[in-house]
Design a protein that fits this description.
The chain is α/β, with parallel strands linked by helices and 280 residues long. Helices cover 42% and strands 16% of the residues. The structure holds nicotinamide-adenine-dinucleotide. The site of nicotinamide-adenine-dinucleotide has 25 residues, from helix 9. This is Bifunctional protein FolD.
């Protein structure tokens, strides 16, 4: 079994981002600026924002964070003003959002949508146009490419069909010429779908959903899931048993998540360059 460790993949992207930022410093007086907006007090979201702040500091991206409570209109208004603010080049809205604010994601200007989650960004992805792509989906492909895994003609099963994780991953795999099956909570025989595939992307958010019995010796497993079980971070795959059986597998932690964070940094630089170099 080969472990598909995310750390060298992340390090490679980070080095490229740092080099680009050095170049930007030489040519422009401005720097990329990420604004993270949170509505409410969800602690996991705050922890995630802290991690993003650390990643930004490490590569040299300016970071600011604003939290809103009991003022949904003020929250939406802040997104609108951030869209117009030339000092802000990237906007992230922390999830989960309350039902009355779910549509606020759509308010983000596509040019500053560094998570690639607005319908405009997703539309570009689905039609093959260049744009900011969802970070986790790109991270999966980065791992696949870094480890030289051939995708063309292979059968892939994506478990999970959310707009920002499952569907974009399926789309990128399909664009890389895989034959893709999307599985979800109503899929009748998940084990059979997984057995039929060589590349398996687990993105359901259910610990131990995918067992060693569902996998085979030529399975290549990318585990996107992040679940906390007794205070420990685990993926969707029973790693201990699966790793004894499969051909290749990403660990959790140290797999997709590590790479996702650096893809986000790269998207922030991309957005900055699109805004500032195209408007020069
Ligand atoms: P989601 O809840 O929006 O979607 C989960 C999907 O899984 C749904 O489409 C659902 O149909 C499917 N599903 C649920 N139970 C299933 C089952 N028993 N069998 C088959 N399919 C099932 O979640 P999401 O936002 O798409 O995130 C998925 C997972 O990825 C979560 O664990 C999340 O924390 C993780 N995640 C990881 C990263 C990363 O960088 N590693 C980034 C984003 C999300």
């Amino acid at each position: 079994m080969q472990e598909l460790n995310g750390k060298p993949v992340a390090a490679k992207i980070k080095a490229a981002v740092q080099a680009e930022l050095q170049q930007i410093k030489k040519t422009l007086s401005k720097q990329p600026n990420l604004l993270v907006l949170q509505y409410g007090n969800d602690q996991a979201s705050k922890t995630y924002a802290n991690r993003i702040e650390k990643n930004c500091q490490e590569v040299g991206i300016n970071f600011s964070y604003e939290q809103f409570n009991k003022n949904p209109d003020g929250f939406k208004q802040r997104i609108r003003t951030a869209n117009l603010d030339p000092e802000i080049s990237a906007i992230m809205i922390q999830q989960p959002l309350t039902d009355n604010l779910k549509n606020s994601l759509e308010l983000i200007s596509p040019s500053k949508d560094v998570e690639g989650i607005t319908s405009a960004s997703l539309g570009k992805l689905f039609t093959g146009l260049s744009g900011l792509k969802p970070c986790t989906a790109e991270a999966c492909l980065e791992i696949i490419n870094y480890y030289g895994i051939k995708v063309t003609g292979k059968k892939a099963a994506v478990i999970g069909r959310s707009n920002i994780v499952g569907k974009p991953i399926a789309m990128l795999l399909q664009q890389a010429d895989a034959t893709v099956t999307i599985c979800h909570s109503k899929t009748k025989n998940l084990a059979a779908e997984i057995k039929a595939a060589e590349i398996i992307i687990a993105a359901a958010g259910k610990a131990a959903l995918i067992t060693a019995e569902m996998l085979s010796s030529n399975s290549i497993v990318i585990d996107v899931g992040t679940n906390f079980v007794q205070g420990k971070l685990v993926g969707d795959v029973d790693y201990l048993n699966a790793s004894r059986k499969v051909s290749k597998i990403t660990p959790v932690p140290g797999g997709v998540g590590t790479v996702t964070n650096q893809v986000l940094m790269r998207n922030i630089v991309k957005a900055f360059k699109n805004i500032n170099l195209n408007n020069k």
